[in-house]
Design a protein that fits this description.
Blueprint (H helix, E strand, L loop, with lengths): L5 H25 L1 H17 L11 H4 L14 H12 L16 H18 L41 E6 L14 H16 L11 E3 L4 E3 L16 E8 L6 E7 L7 E4 L2 H7 L3 E3 L5 E3 H9 L8 H9 L7 H25 L1
Antiparallel strand pairs: 1-4, 2-3, 4-5, 5-6, 7-8
Helix pairs in contact: 1-9
């Protein structure tokens, strides 16, 4: 699974070790791993008490639909109509026609109750607080973001960015493997030009002031929902490096986050395998400059003289935001309520 060339393998290993070292250093300073564990426990208790929040996943009324049997549609004939619509949109693809199964009056209710029970059991499982399904293997490479990605089930809107993160920009292009036809320099330039045109037509490129902290509301603002650039089909073009629990929940890891579109975010743990894949992805800068994505990450690490330590600085800047995530806020509000009640009780006793 590792690169065969010894020099390349050593380069990939050093970058992975450096990224993990950055994560460990930020974790040690802010106690992030303990906070992630506490948040998982608070989430489980919240679900057990009947709460609907599932951060960083979708809330319960959206999420429980994922727990229906795969061959059942709670939307009735809508699923058939959606299939017909897809066949009209993509006539070149053989989309099978599956007749809609007819259920008794009792079966949909039973399916819904079972789905809600399964969702609740998942929400109360602290090992699945950050990964919607148990992770046993990597997904197959898909499109340009490939190195093995996982289904995390997250809802990536502004609130997601309580998670420590640093924006690394746009990496929309293509990737090459040994079996691909070798692209010419002109091919790469044409792809870069088309990608940049796509971005410009979809909204403003974000600047340094777009990802900030709202002191009054105590929440992040701007990373996604308040900026139009992620809509119009370009969300998959932008990326962040985040600090997130490993799929086995044993430690925090550096991960690549790409918001994605209909299927939700792509979350790639940056181990040596993933970093090796990034060597095959072309990075397109805002000025049209083309470079290798792996080399771009090395530049953002900032180990060379005169380079900024962008990844470390960004993760360290946003690390304190995690302590204000929805479940920690609930805990803080409950403690404040208890303190206020105690203070009021003492005032009444004195009177």
């Amino acid at each position: 699974m590792h690169p065969a060339n010894a020099d390349v393998r050593n380069d990939v290993w050093q970058v992975q070790a450096t990224l993990q070292g950055i994560v460990d250093r930020v974790d040690n300073e802010f106690g992030l791993f303990a906070l992630f564990k506490e948040t998982a426990e608070l989430k489980a208790k919240h679900a057990e008490s009947g709460g609907a929040c599932r951060w960083p996943h979708w809330d319960v009324e959206t999420r429980y639909h994922n727990y229906f049997p795969s061959d059942y549609s709670p939307y009735g004939t809508d699923s058939m109509e959606a299939g017909n619509h897809l066949r009209e949109m993509y006539p070149e693809i053989d989309i099978p026609i599956r007749p809609l199964k007819v259920y008794s009056d009792e079966e949909p209710i039973a399916f819904e109750n079972a789905a809600r029970s399964a969702e609740l059991a998942s929400a109360m499982d602290t090992s699945r607080a950050y990964w919607e399904i148990p992770v046993t293997s990597k997904m197959k490479p898909v499109d340009i973001w490939m190195g093995g990605w996982f289904v995390c089930g997250c809802s990536v809107d502004d609130s997601f960015f309580h998670i420590p993160h640093t924006y690394i920009g746009c990496g929309y292009a293509f990737y090459e493997t040994e079996i691909d036809i070798k692209r010419s320099a002109q091919d790469i330039e044409d792809l870069a030009r088309k990608s940049l045109e796509r971005h410009k037509n979809s909204g403003p490129i974000p600047d340094a002031g777009w990802d900030t902290w709202d002191e009054c509301a105590q929440k992040p603002i701007g990373p996604l929902s308040s900026h139009p650039f992620v809509y119009g089909g370009v969300a998959e073009s932008y990326a962040w490096i985040i600090i997130y629990p490993s799929p086995d929940n044993t430690k925090l890891m550096p991960m690549l986050l790409v918001p994605g579109e209909e299927c939700g975010p792509i979350l790639i743990p940056l181990d040596t395998v993933a970093l090796s894949w990034l060597r095959r992805i072309y990075w397109i800068g805002e000025n049209g400059q083309i470079s290798n994505f792996f080399e771009r990450i090395k530049t953002l690490i900032g180990f060379r003289s005169g380079e900024s330590e962008s990844i470390f600085d960004g993760l360290r800047l946003t690390a304190p935001w995690f302590k204000k995530n929805p479940f920690m806020k609930m805990k803080e509000a409950a403690e404040q309520d208890s303190d206020d009640m105690r203070a009021y009780c003492l005032r009444m006793a004195i009177k």
